[in-house]
Design a protein that fits this description.
The chain is of the alpha+beta class. About 35% of the residues lie in helices and about 25% in strands. The chain has an 8-stranded mixed beta sheet with strand order 1-7-6-5-2-3-4-8, sandwiched between helices. The radius of gyration is 15 Å and the shape is globular.
Length: about 160
């Protein structure tokens, strides 16, 4: 078992590295929240490879966001992943009453966390193997998830 560790980051590149590390470490679940996922490299080949490996192991992805337009326009590779693994992925859009939320986080297996304090900035923290650090963001994600509705359907008809 590896030692728990935390790291602070301040750049978009460091955010991408920590995000990839969180995906790579996840075995069962990935819960992601961001207003639009524009700063996350969901369309990058290396992230697609990590996500496909995660889902090939039976991992489940839940993604919550305010606005899916950026993903729809700029991440065709991620849209294919949603189609290919529709049985393991679900994306939901927040209602208008939650659009004031501006933080951003990725939770892997309830023990790994990459969190930005505000979605306009790269500054944040990453914690690996620290369950206590993920408890509050996990509760927040679950509450956001319950209030949100399905979006980014795998096909035009949503089937």
């Amino acid at each position: 078992m590896t030692e728990p560790r935390s790291v602070r980051f301040d750049t978009w590149r460091e955010l991408e590295n920590q995000f990839s590390a969180c995906i790579g470490a996840a075995q069962r679940t990935l819960d992601l929240f961001d207003p639009d996922f524009a700063p996350y490299p969901l369309g990058a080949l290396d992230v697609d490879t990590l996500l496909r490996a995660f889902m090939a192991r039976g991992g489940r992805l839940r993604l919550a966001l305010h606005n899916p337009a950026h993903i729809e326009r700029h991440y065709p590779r991620f849209r294919r992943l949603l189609r290919d693994y529709s049985h393991l992925c679900e994306c939901r859009q927040t209602p208008a009453g939650l659009r004031h939320l501006t933080d951003s986080f990725c939770i892997g297996d309830g023990r790994n966390l990459v969190r930005r304090f505000h979605s306009d900035h790269a500054r944040g923290t990453a914690s690996f193997g620290e369950v206590a650090e993920t408890e509050l963001p996990q509760h927040r994600f679950d509450a956001i998830w319950l209030e949100s509705r399905a979006t980014l359907q795998p096909t035009i008809s949503g089937l």
